[in-house]
């Protein structure tokens, strides 16, 4: 029998190519293309008075300089507001090149095309722009105070105000025996994939056809946007996401100005054109995330049960709001976590500032929400003197209460309804994994040595696999290979491997014979994109459904060819064969040939399908009414709503008594994403998420000054953790299958990053006794807090 | 924007140094003599990627922090984004393309990265592999803290490093078994297969 592949720890098939240096990342393509450099605003807020390019014209190798005024009318329209929402009443998006005003440092003003990047940058340096600087709005509270406006016509800086409610939170809080009120601050961070953005366009003037390679998480939507802006038939535009050096959300934003400008320039100039962002540009022109200020009011009883929760927050979405309200809506809903909240009110203002726009970064509003909820639970425990895990326990939704519909609207416009999970079981696993109950002994032992340690935990629920749909195409070739395509693109999630596992199982073929292509509109035109931990759930299930169709077709063809009932046949080892007598069989590749009735025997294997070769029924059409040539199928998976994964993290930290350096001693994860397609890949996703979470908890912040200048726009100053900062992580999995899809899976991509800041903050708080109400918290900030606090007993909040 | 990125042309230098000042650079790359005439300001990373079209070496930050562009210069790891091509005239470079055997069989370090899931998107991977080869030449039997320290000059945004550290440990063992120089092209016939 063929070994079951789904669920097996299969080594990744994409690895050898990447390890040999044979990857095809964006800048590995287009060696002979003209190169683009962008002149970007040095001001956070300014009017452009004049642009003088005279000196640049002498640069050897200069091809073209384009400003806003040089663009055709369609390119002078604002960029799309990708996700409209009824509450988004004052939505503004940028232009591909600034139209007389810039609203953040890094906004694109002008495009230079030259024979190479060195020349293009030389030209940019010689161009003089005359600005009238305007006051900059920086920080969410300044935005809401509205002393200055980012956009003149939006004097209050508010793009949207949205409230969602369950029950009557203010009333429940007023009636509660205990209440707490506090503020939380979450700073900006960003995806910062190791590969920056990039776009490469090839215009074929003979065919009037555009091929666009771009480092994107949404190639089908880029294609549609480019066709729209360039006023080309969709059929004349193909978009390919080559190997992508990480995305983490920032590359779901599209179209970027360069994704419109580069293909336009290629068509104008009749020459290949390429743009590759440099690292400083990535910091100031690719989008950020996180940035919220939250105010929490909670009412609870003596057991710690939350009776009412009222959260208000300001969401800083930067200079423009192209991705709508997705991030704050996710914060609003996913804040609830695994808890049964019967009285909840959440209100946010999404505000403009003169900073880089905010769109999803891995976690997409969830780390902020989780921080609010988990810090709240810890405050309740501290207030009541209860164990923090006990307070979580009394608030959990119980497994028998699922599915549970909260009565809120999620980011997909669908009911916010948890499908499955077992939160008490997850907590029990976590407590064992980290030895929660043994911690006080460890604390005492450490204290005896003059060491300060603490423990904390955080729990989350993550809506994954959001719709509307994905599709899959599965084709058995007459040569025996199975070709699989799906439209969304891959940024390191191992889709080639995981999707091949699914198909290998359905068709009984060797894993090595399945070839998977993602993110290439030449192969699959309909797709949504890779975000929201959805690729495995959406494309995985779509490919599964397509493979099931191919399987059924193969069985029918084999049944006719072997004259055996379908029920007596099985697919294994690349054949359809009779169950119990495997010698009576027919190769899948022969069925592939037979499935396509031929006139011409273009090779030997094709002879069996030609018109005089087989005794086909002369009274029936060679291709039946309900049939199509080829052993292939396309299918789509479109769920009614998201499937909700969950998990919990616990961490032990040690604080240096003298320097306040924060060291992670132990990190434990319990994770439930339903059935696992490939445990190696899932583990990798979780570990990578935790590393980004550690960065968000302790190191990563976008340090804007009051003038809107980003002070740390380099990897020298924006501190991504190295191997020395990321702890060893122990993981335990719970597998509660999703009832919503055939594979019973849930997304895993973002999970690791969601509760990390909350858990680490809890552990630091436990170690020091100082309430941690901000993420990130650096050793120097902690040291400041420890030095200035009133001397208390310290330690021990659990 | 600093002039640190992405040149493409092999022998001419529009917008580069004034005509006539281009310099011929002759180097041995992966055991093969290679040459190109380039402007004095051409970075080694751009020279490898765009003049020699060895695109396995990646550029992540252009200022020597991320390590993605690490190659071996006379056997020692260097950041190719911080060196000018003209400064390495006459010297020996090993890039990621120079490690696997001619038949494509992975070098023990490469194989270990696959076995231990030491890569996801694969962008930082060539830099990590080259750093690991240089590190293991100096430290053939490292303990875990030494591996962590030795791999702490490269950034990875995907893996959280656990797979990378495990891979370096596995590779150290495999290389000790065969006695092969970690910086040398893999030779399966020399017993280098796992």
Main pleated sheet of chain A:
7 strands, mixed
| Helix proportion range of chain A | 25-40%
Shape descriptor of chain A reads: globular
Strand order, largest beta sheet of chain A: 3-5-1-12-9-10-11
Tell me the count of domains of chain B: 2
Largest interface: A-B, 76 and 71 residues
Q: Per DSSP, what share of the residues of chain B sits in E-state strands of 2 or more residues? A: 5-15%
The appropriate CATH architecture of the largest domain in chain A is: 2-Layer Sandwich
Q: What does it look like?
A:
The complex is a heterodimer of chains A (798) and B (194). Chain A is of the alpha+beta class. Chain A folds into 3 domains: 32-134 and 197-276, Aldehyde Oxidoreductase, domain 3 (Alpha-Beta Complex); 363-465 and 640-788, 2-Layer Sandwich (Aldehyde Oxidoreductase, domain 4), CATH 3.30.365; 468-595 and 630-637, Aldehyde Oxidoreductase, domain 4 (2-Layer Sandwich). A 7-stranded mixed sheet of chain A has the order 3-5-1-12-9-10-11, with helices on both faces. In chain A, strands 7-15-14-13-8-29 form a 6-stranded mixed sheet, sandwiched between helices. A 4-stranded mixed sheet of chain A has the order 18-26-27-28, with helices on both faces. In chain A, helix 9 (366-384) packs across helix 10, helix 13 (495-507) runs parallel beside helix 14 and helix 16 packs across helix 17. The model of chain A is unreliable at 791-798 (pLDDT under 50). By secondary structure, chain B is an alpha+beta fold. Chain B folds into 2 domains: 23-98, Beta-grasp domain (Ubiquitin-like (UB roll), Roll), CATH 3.10.20; 108-185, [2Fe-2S]-binding domain (DNA polymerase, domain 1, Orthogonal Bundle), CATH 1.10.150.120. Helices cover 28% and strands 13% of the residues of chain B. Chain B is built from 5 helices and 5 strands, in the order ββαβββαααα. Chain B has helices at residues 44-51, 108-115, 125-138, 144-150, 162-178; strands spanning 23-29, 32-38, 70-73, 76-79, 92-94. Chain B has a 5-stranded mixed sheet with strand order 2-1-5-3-4, with helices on both faces. The longest helix of chain B is centred in the last third of the chain and has 17 residues, at 162-178. The termini of chain B are far apart. Mean pLDDT of chain B is 90; it is low at 1-19. At the A-B interface, helix 1, strand 1, helix 2, helix 7 and helix 16 of A face helix 2, helix 3 and helix 5 of B.
